[in-house]
Task: structure prediction
Amino acid sequence: MSLLRVEQLTHYFGGLRAVHNFSLTIEAGRMHGLIGPNGAGKTTIFNLITGVHAPTAGRVVFAGEEITGLQPHRIAARGLGRTFQDLKLWRHMTVLEHVKMARYATIGYGLIGAFFGTPRRRREEAEIEENACRLLEMLGIEHLAEQVVTNLPYGVQRRVEMARALALDPRLLLLDEPTVGMTPEELNQMMELIRRINGELGLAILLIEHRMKMVMELCRHISVVVFGDLIAEGAPAAIQNDRRVIEAYLGKDTVAT
Ligand SMILES: Nc1ncnc2c1ncn2[C@@H]1O[C@H](COP(=O)(O)OP(=O)(O)O)[C@@H](O)[C@H]1O
Ligand SMILES: [Mg+2]
Result:
């Protein structure tokens, strides 16, 4: 059984068809790239998979169950984590608080527990703290745990966002341009980190990335969208030599000459 099956997704914003008949399958533990020019519909595809928008047509099946149109937090709780193209961090919270908050959303102590600090609540609290610290360590930002995120460099903020997504113990992680705006050094570190998340945690990853080289290095499978349509899908070598992909990236004239 595939971990994620996206079937024939179509989405309209008013009269604009942003995604058209898009399908995609990801096996557990795999790293899959999603590329295409600006405005191709990549982020919209993420938003359709994660419940931010309900598709006009089509289905999303995760771990064997249909999740089409569920609320984003329900989809996240099932093990589908994501980061955003434009960072969505909470301004006044520390690094550690970010990661802990993500986890609180999923645990089940009632109001009574919250007020009176039952043993169960204290145990959960300790577990959350421990998990969060382990994640920060893995991402190499444990020494920044008490810092307010808005004061930190951009590359670090990206890691915090990733730690927050990982706090929910996802089986699939959707990364929307995780290296945009990074220095070359931050970029290399981020690539290494994505490899480790995939390798050590065994997470499947769907990666939106505009740097061809990076996608080709990281992913064994790549989907290419242009104006909402899937125009090519396959291994990096095949994608690189696909005529439609070259046309989409370089323009028809370049191919002709
Ligand atoms: N919330 C929205 N409302 C209206 N149009 C949108 C919205 N989000 C994206 N679009 C439009 O849908 C198209 C695809 O956008 P997007 O998915 O962000 O592309 P990409 O991530 O590939 O750059 C674009 O034409 C964009 O302007
Ligand atoms: Mg986008």
About this structure: The pocket of adenosine-5'-diphosphate (ligand 1) is lined by residues 13, 16, 18, 36, 38-44 (CB under 6 Å). The two ends are 45 Å apart (CA to CA).
